[in-house]
What does this fold into?
Amino acid sequence: MIDIADILSPNGVIVDLKACNSKRQVLKELAERASELIDVDAQQLLEALMERERLGTTGVGHGIAIPHARLEKLDKVVGLFARLDQPIDFEALDDQPSDLIFMLLAPNAADADSLKALARVSRVLRDRSLQQRLRQTKDADAMYRMLTEKPESHAA
It folds into this structure.
């Protein structure tokens, strides 16, 4: 199973991403941040993300969006998490604006890994108490720990 820690680094967490008033602007900001973390062209990344959005929204509801794209240049799945200072319309299935954004970037050849990563991120972010904690904290390191903590085992 893919762990969030395998795809997200502490410097890939952004608290209160500001002044975004459209989905495209959020994706542009995230593409620019990603280009600083990994060796990829921000404009090329933005185009790949927008192309994916044209296929159907990545706003999954409950204030969460998981934009994703495939890039030839990558050699592994990479994630970036941002909490927006103001929710924006991501055309989510429940018509609610999104403020918790987890961007996933995958190599072209990583079909299974990218699907596993998408499923894992979706499962983690579906947790309502985690959503609430992510919205309340002001600390990027705390957000990273919340996103990467292992589910507690209830085995006796």
In short: The chain has one domain: 11-144.
